[in-house]
Amino acid sequence: MVLYAEDIMRKNCQIINGNTSALEGSKHMAENREGYIIVGDGKIPEGIVTEWDYINKVLSQEADPSRVLLKEIMTAPLTSVTSDTPMEKVASLMAKKAIRRLLVIDNNKLSGIITSRDILKFFNEYVEDMVEIASKFGTR
C-alpha cells in the first residue's frame, strides 16, 4: 500500500494576510495551538512564519512585534508538494531540507499541510498495528 501526502495532511488550513502584524500573528498561533502561520492572499500561499522566525527575526532583533509585518518575517519561497506525492518522498524532502512543516499545494492553491508531528503520529500507529499483527503469530 502506497500512502500519499493527501492521506496524512491536515486540511482546512487558514491563510493569514501578510500585512498582519507579528503580534496579531502570534495571537493566532497561540489560539490555534500551532507553531506556524501560512501567509498569503486568499487561497494562494506565499510564505510561512514559524516559531523560529519569531525568535530569529523579531525577538533576537528586539523588534516591536506590533510594528513588524508577517510578510517581512515569512520564509519564502515555499517548499511544497502536491497531494499525490508519495509519503516516502514527503519524508525524504522534509529530512533533506531540515523542515518540520511542508505545504501541500495543488494548482497554486493550498490543499493542506504536513508536519513532522503528523508523520510521527502516523508511523507510530503503523508500528503499533504491525506489533499487534505480529503478536498473533507470536513468539513472545
Structure in a nutshell:
The protein has helices at residues 5-8, 22-32, 51-59, 70-73, 87-97, 116-136, and strands spanning 15-16, 36-41, 44-50, 80-81, 101-106, 109-115. By secondary structure, the chain is α/β, with parallel strands linked by helices.
Structure description:
With 140 residues, the chain is an alpha/beta fold. The chain has a single domain, classed as CBS-domain (Roll), CATH 3.10.580. It has six helices and six strands, in the order αβαββααβαββα. Strands 1-2-3 form a three-stranded mixed β-sheet. Strands 4-5-6 form a three-stranded mixed β-sheet. Helix 5 (87-97) links the parallel strand 4 (80-81) and strand 5 (101-106). The longest helix is centred in the last third of the chain and has 21 residues, at 116-136. The radius of gyration is 18 Å and the shape is elongated. The relative contact order is 0.20. The mean pLDDT is 91.
